[in-house]
Specification:
- There is one protein chain.
- With 115 residues, this protein is of the alpha+beta class.
- It has one domain: Ubiquitin-like (UB roll) (Roll).
- It contains 3 helices and 5 strands.
- Strand 1 and strand 2 form a beta hairpin.
- The radius of gyration is 13 Å and the shape is globular.
Length: 115
């Protein structure tokens, strides 16, 4: 189980929900299932409307990250991540601070999602 805490000015207070790690649900699907008003349009990783800032709360090294090519391109063009952060994700499994909620699969770690 993973605790996912959503934080946004659009929420009255931070909301923490439980997500089953490894069930391949995206962060966006977790938000939708819990009525979190996360922006999204295409749900396909092309529009970039579901950009979120993600940080690991456990204090441990983040679990390996898999980014789609669409996600890398959209976030890089939006100026949210650098080429070095993409390289670090690919070679050292270090997640960048920004992700697309429609592409990020929730892992077995507690995270804070700002939007």
């Amino acid at each position: 189980m993973a605790n996912v805490t959503f934080s946004s000015p659009r929420l009255k207070k931070d909301v923490t929900v439980y997500a089953v790690a490894g069930d391949t649900k995206t962060l966006l699907s977790v938000a939708k299932a819990n009525s979190i008003p996360l922006n999204h349009e295409c749900e396909n990783g092309e529009c970039g409307s579901c950009q979120v800032q993600v940080s690991v709360l456990s204090g441990k090294r983040p679990i390996g990250v898999a980014m789609t090519e669409k996600e890398k391109t959209v976030l890089r063009l939006a100026g949210k991540i650098t080429a070095q952060q993409i390289l670090d994700a690919e070679t050292s499994d270090l997640p960048p601070p920004w992700r697309l909620a429609c592409q990020m699969v929730v892992r077995d770690e507690d995270i804070l999602v700002k939007f």
